[in-house]
Amino acid sequence: MSPDSAPILEVTTLVKRFGGFHALDGLSFHVTSGEILGLVGPNGSGKTTAINVISGLYAPDGGEVALDGHSIGGVASHKLVHRGINRTFQIPKPFLSLTVRQNIEVALAHGRAGVAPPAMAALLEEYRLTEVADRPAADLNSAQQKMLDLVRALATGPRLLLLDELAAGLNPAELDWIAEKIKALASTGMAIIVVEHLMGFIEHITDRVIVLNAGKEIFEGTLAVAVKVPQVIEVFLGGEHAA
Amino acid sequence: MLVYALVAGVLFGLYFSLVGIGLNLVFGVMRIVNLAHGDFLMLGAFVAFGVVTLAGIDPLFAVPLAFVIFLLSGLLLYWVLVPRLQGSVNPEMLSIILFFGLSQVIEAVTTIFFGTSERSIQSRLLGTVFQTIKVKLFGGKPDGSGPIQIFGQGFPAPWVIAAVTSLIAIALVYVYLYRTRLGTLTRAVMSRRDEALATGIDVDRVSAAAFGIGLGLASLAGVFAPFMFGSVTPAFGADATVTSFAIVVLGSLGNPLGTALGGVVYGVCYMLVQTYLSSWADLLPYVLLIFILLLRPSGLLGRRVRVA
Amino acid sequence: MPSILRHLLFIVVPLIAVFAVLPGVYQNHLLLFNFVIFLTLAQGVNIIYGFTGYLPFGYVGFFGAGAYGFAIMVMHYQSPAIIAVLVGGLVGVALGLLLTPLLRLSGAYFAIANLAASLAVLHFVANPALENITRGPYGVSLTGTFNPNDAYAAALVVLTLTLAAVVYLKNSSFGLALQAVREDAVSASMAGVSVVKMRVIAWLASALVAGLAGGVYAWYVSVFYPDNVFSGDFSIFAIVFALFGGVATITGPIVGVIILYGVYNLIGFTTPQYFQLIYGLLIMGLVLFLPAGLVSLATRRGWHVP
Q1: Smallest CA–CA separation between B50 and chain C, in Å?
Q2: In tens digits, what is the pLDDT along chain B, a chain of 308 residues?
Q3: Option in A81, A97, A98 nearest C192 (CB)
Q4: C288–B98: do the CB atoms touch at under 8 Å?
């Protein structure tokens, strides 16, 4: 990763309102290919909303989201998938009555990956789903459902991957394992944005973090520096005391 | 003619509110569309037939009778059907089908016992109890129940009696929801079902009560159906369900008191179309329902939007 | 052998062959014709409910519209029956297009809006004010095209096409994507599936099936009233048959029609309320004890059911 390469995603003064509540209130940041960017902040600071807007689930109410320099605000999700953006969900919703293999087939067939998508067998093997490949997704445990959700995203060959609390609920061994997987994906040139509460995990895998509060970024840099900034400390402690 | 249509519309509208309110209460609490709602209306009408033919008394006595019978049936049905349903994969879709099956069973059983012929009750029978009381207490002779004068126009007495009964019933629903403990819990479940569960409210008890009251209200409305619509057959239920749904959606799904507004708006539209465009009046509930669902799915009062 | 070929060869071909031969050996042609119609409608419901998850309580709207499309072509344009059947299918599709906004609704809202739509179409067609066009409530009589044998053959063709469509859905990534949309629209769009387009295609295909069936039905019976061809029984039977067998399969709706419509005819038309009672109880029992239909008895054991 070279710091001066053009960003794949550029978010500029993004605004998203729900009724009178400003979930995003002028958020700006960027991410470049091969970089792992962490989005951290207290509950309700707008992390998941940011991912939802970038992945096309919500249209922004103001500001701009640009992919490769082209504005994509308000473009339908499936079109963004075809242009190389994909994501996982905090609570994955796989196609429960379809088998694991069929779940992946849908994404392989409709993802229109720009580059040749990974092969089914390799995906199943790499994310430890081979043994359950022909079982309905409803039979999977929650960690397996998370892996299936990730595989669903990877099957569309994304260039920008948004991970919404992928690590939550995994055991320490699984955490180390998935951290290596994420780093390996980034080393292929994929840009990755990680939303996560586990600070150790964030510190281990991210190159850079953005700290959000009330829908705006209040810090940008490495986590090691962030934890020394008074404003960041206040937001986190204040947030936890309030909660 | 306009005054007549408007007053008749309000009278019918109050009655329509009663027709829909039970469906909305059940939906608000259980998130289940009771597709057998209209069939309980139909059964209420048959309770009225029974009271008239077997006991020979004022069909108004069928009002408390029907309410109690179907309140209890509702509680029983709830415990038989719902727990099993809520353990399934897709309770919303399955509940539609389940209650549809129930509506078929009710219609079939009623047909088997009473046949398919159209039944009606002479409208002068409704409210005879008032005449009797008047004669007993104040003397004088029964003068028969002629039309009731409102704004210089005569309206059939049953319309007015149905409208007044509906008003009382809706007021009682209000008292239940806002002045009783179970009612407060009911409102809690209606606004946030998951949180109500998490805070330890006995959601099953609240839902069973709502289901029983919902069916009771439907049957109560049914008592007046023979007077408002001329006659009733066992097949009346399906149309009544769609009409009720139109009224409920018009007001606001999940807000039982919004139904009162929905009913009046519907009643006035109904009477205006009946008066000025009578050949197209049959289309009204359906077209209105579709347009409301598409243009303002949250109803006139609501905020909730349900889209795929 | 690829499974698509296997399904065509071992399910579609034998079924069509049996119904092609039966009129030669069995007297009650009307019954056979009704079987073919219900097989078609149950598969039409399968396309929209089984694969897409929309419960079409007003499915008969397309059927009735198709029948009236046929009638109007024959009455006003003296069109040949085949053309009129095709127009019936197109009328079904046109109605489907008109109703596409309903697809924005979910669950019960869709089901009831669709029911209301079918009743609206019925009251529209049956309106005395349209007597010049539809003959209003007085019904139509199409003696000029009356030809039950040809109509039966046409019904078989429509059934074949419908079954072929379901076989395609069962064996294609298109069908898989539809099921993905049914399970979760957001995840499906994140798999790259164009959710709206998929739903609309399935909806129109299902409308086309019912429209064609309605056209063929009008051809076969030749005399009918609005209440006949818009009878809610068509929607209900088609839905119940499909559910009873098991939706999102090829064989489920077929099994459902053969068993339940067979039972219906054994009980007889003279006491329809007893059948209504039985199928009402069946529906309730099905939801409570076997929500995925008869085929789930096999799939639970791990057997694959096409």
Answers
A1: 21
A2: 788 888 989 999 999 999 999 999 998 888 888 889 999 999 999 999 999 888 888 889 999 999 999 999 999 999 988 888 876 767 777 888 899 899 999 999 999 999 888 888 887 788 777 777 777 777 666 555 567 777 777 888 889 999 999 999 999 999 999 999 999 999 888 888 778 877 888 888 999 999 999 999 999 999 999 999 888 999 888 888 888 888 888 887 777 778 888 899 889 888 888 888 877 777 887 888 888 887 766 666 554 444 44
A3: A81
A4: yes
User: Residue C258, exposed/middle/buried by CB under 10 A (0-12, 13-18, 19+)?
Assistant: middle
Residue C172 exposure: Cα atoms within 13 Å on the Cβ side: 11
Asked if B1 has any chain C CB less than 8 Å from its own CB, the reply is no
- Report the C-alpha gap between C26 and A122 in whole angstroms: 56
CB contact under 8 A, C116 and B246: yes
Residue C191 with chain A: CB contacts under 8 Å:
81, 106-107, 110-111, 152, 155-156
Dist CA C106 CA B189 (whole Å): 22
Structural domain boundaries, residue C214: 3-234
* Total count of domains within chain C: 1
C65 domain residue, yes or no: yes
pTM above 0.95, yes or no: no
Spans of all domains in chain B: 2-141+153-300
Other chains touching A, judged by 3 or more CB pairs under 8 Å: C
Residue C268 lies in a domain: no
> Chain B residues with CB inside 8 Å of C238's CB?
none
Q: Could C179 and A76 be called an inter-chain contact, meaning their C-beta atoms sit closer than 8 Å?
A: no
Q: Which residues on chain A are in Cβ contact (under 8 Å) with C192?
A: 78, 81-82, 107, 110-112, 156
Asked if B96 is an interface residue toward chain C (Cβ–Cβ < 8 A), one would say yes
The single-letter DSSP state of residue A217 is: E
CA distance B204 to C41: 39
Asked whether this complex has an ipTM greater than 0.95, the answer is no
C55 and B93 in contact by Cβ < 8 A? yes
Is there a domain that residue C289 lies in? no
Is B55 part of the contact surface with chain C (CB cutoff 8 Å)?
no
- Indicate whether C290 belongs to any domain: no
Q: Contact A232/A226 with Cβ under 8 angstroms?
A: yes
Long-range contacts of the stretch A28-33 (C-beta < 8 A, 24+)? A28/A63, A28/A217, A29/A210, A29/A217, A29/A220, A31/A7, A31/A160, A31/A191, A31/A192, A31/A193, A32/A1, A32/A3, A32/A5, A32/A6, A32/A7, A32/A8, A32/A191, A33/A1, A33/A5, A33/A8, A33/A159, A33/A189, A33/A190, A33/A191
> Cβ distance A121 to A108 under 8 Å?
no
